[in-house]
Each structure stands twice: as C-alpha cells, then as structure tokens.
Amino acid sequence: VSLVSCLIAVSQASIINRCDLARALHKEDLDGFEGYSLNDWLCLAFVESNFNISKVNENADGSFDYGIFQINSHYWCNDYRSHSENIYHEDCQDLLSPSLLSSIICAKKIVSGAGGMKNW
Question: Are 58 and 69 in contact (CB under 8 A)?
Fold first, then answer.
C-alpha cells in the first residue's frame, strides 16, 4: 500500500494547481502580454497539458510536445531525437522544469511572433 501511495504522489507531483500557475504566470507578466489575458494562458495550459508540467506527447509526424504549454520540438526546441528547426534555441528538456521559467520564456517568444496563440 505504501509503494502505491508513493507512486501516486510521484505521478501527481508534475501537476500544478490552477492558482499556483496563475501566480507564476502573473509574476512573469503574462497577464495582458501580446493582448492575451491570464485566463487565455490558463486555458492554453489546461487544454494542452491539463496543468501537467512534465507532459511529453509524441505527434504523428515524429515530433514531440513538451511541458505545460506542449511546445513542439519540430519548430521551437531541440529534443535531440526528432528533426528540429529549434527556432528559439531551447533544449526541450528545459521545458519540463518545475520552475516553469523556460516554458514561459519560450511561450512568450512564440506568441510574440506571427500567429500569436494560433501557433497552438
């Protein structure tokens, strides 16, 4: 029973609650950034990863999506296992950090470019 409890705790450790995420996004000035509200960012994180900081998803084209915003390895970061343009010179593994800073910085760069949040 204690082993199962430990495994459940570990698997839930990568989920951030909505309020903590809102505080982190607000601290990094995302509320209103490029015209997107804090609610827009929270919705993006919920839809893409269900607030899972360590989520990695393989896509049909062989690329992978990383972290809370599911940032794609084909365009934005380098995962060293699939073709990558690595536009923002990010290591995809950094997007899985509990500090969220790399994910937030990368997401800001993405929405600042052509397409904004439509990139997702």
Answer: no
Percent of the chain scoring above 90 in pLDDT: 79
Rounded to an integer, what distance in angstroms lies between the CA atom of residue 95 and that of residue 11? 18
Q: Which of 29, 34, 61, 65 is catalytic?
A: 65
* 85 belongs to the catalytic site: no
Specify the residue for token string 């082993």.
3
Q: What is the DSSP letter of 67?
A: T
Q: Write out the two tokens for 13.
A: 């450790």
pLDDT tens per residue across span 55-79 = 999 999 999 999 999 999 998 999 9
User: What CATH code would you report for 2-119?
Assistant: 1.10.530.10
Q: Per the residue annotation, which of 28, 29, 31, 48 is the catalytic one?
A: 48
Catalytic annotation on 94? no
